[in-house]
Amino acid sequence: xxxxxxxxxxxxxxxxxxVHIKKEDPMKLHQFLPFMLLFLSFLxxxxxxxxxxxxxxxxxxxxxxxxxxxxxxxxKVEVNLTPKLIKLASKSLSNAAEVSELVQMLSGxxxxxxxxxxxxxxxxxxxxxxxxxxxxxxTLFKIKDDNETLEINLLFNEDKVYGLFVILIPEMPEEVTFxxxxxxIAPERIEDLLLNLGNFGVMDIDIRRKLRMQAVSSRATGQxxxxxxxxxxxxxxxxVLDDLCWKIAPQADGFxxxxxxxxxxxxxxxxxxxxxxxxxxxxxxxxxxxxxxVARQTGRDQGMWGIxxxxxxxxxxxxxxxxxxxxxxxxxxxxYVLIPGRYVDQPDVERMNRWNVASKIVxxxxxxxxxxxxxxxxxxxxTEPILMGINFQRVHAxxxxxxxxxxxxxxxxxxxxxxxxxxxxxxxxxVPSEIDASNK
Length: 440
Hints:
Layout: H1 2-23, H2 33-60, E1 77-81, H3 83-89, H4 97-105, E2 106-115, H5 121-134, E3 138-144, E4 148-156, E5 161-170, E6 175-185, H6 190-195, H7 207-211, E7 225-227, H8 244-247, E8 251-252, E9 256-257, E10 268-274, E11 278-286, E12 311-317, E13 325-329, E14 335-339, E15 346-347, E16 356-362, E17 365-373, E18 386-396, E19 401-404, E20 418-423, H9 432-438
Parallel strand pairs: 7-20
Antiparallel strand pairs: 1-2, 2-6, 3-4, 4-5, 5-6, 8-10, 9-19, 10-11, 11-17, 12-13, 12-18, 13-14, 14-15, 16-17, 18-19, 18-20
């Protein structure tokens, strides 16, 4: 690097000056002070430039995972797109502002596809997972169903994603594909990037179908489903939906009126993910008149808020027996847990204080984040993904409207609640009595 080459000469000049100054009359030292200050400033600037260049060189390789293996195997498809080739591949779409903006964020796209009949796919997958772990990548999510396996990993800091690494194993055709995307990508554009991979001549990942799966049944009420997505890192429960997992989480919206089954004017958007530790729900409740949101510091011992206060409820039915538990919160973060009964509703005192909520009123509504630990839930013991019952309900106090995601009508049909598909809950903890008995 040019500044580095000249650096020793600068020190030689500095040494000469020091010797010369020492030999001069002390009364004349002030004559050299302006030059010395300028010289020292110049040295500082050079050192800063070197540090910045070193950091730039270091960052250019961040997010890159070499797709070359230690052993010689032939890829069925091989794609290596540098920034120039990325622009060339997307030239036909250069007028599309969205794609053009994505192109500016990318510095490389690399793809390898192998025939699973001629290679050991598990060996390849294990090799790449090992490399990702070495560089401290985070797994955004893994989805495995009867048709394919999809895994997306990220290398990121607080505000930039430097690399995405995709592993795709479809049932048909018998292939395994690895994709490494390098650049400086805004987290909120990850889904757009994945959806537009086909525009760069790379591949199409039908991530919209996977992450926003909301199948509608033949019921008039529109019973709905949401795909379960397991993430390796949880959101921070602070009432701000800026965590990476929310950027690409499955989304439930299109709430309808509880009585008339018509779309409501102020919609609600809910996102749902889970980890081995807990279930996480992020709510964005739109309100055209946020200054009229009704929220009281209601104590848990005072029970339900009714229609006179804004609140939301996550309804959970893990055994899919239509016996739900409601996890409720209002705009002040006041919480309540309810077990609806046929004749009377009962508060769930045992779980009342064992979950975490943060709420915040914003300029166009209010936001809620919920964390519900698996350890406070009863659920089936299983090693295979299962279906669970869920629903999201909102009470909007100002217009006195109750709305829900999967409409159950009035007075409410639990069997019409929504479905949470392909959930793999964590193994249940061993209770102390069982541990004691096993040691005898």
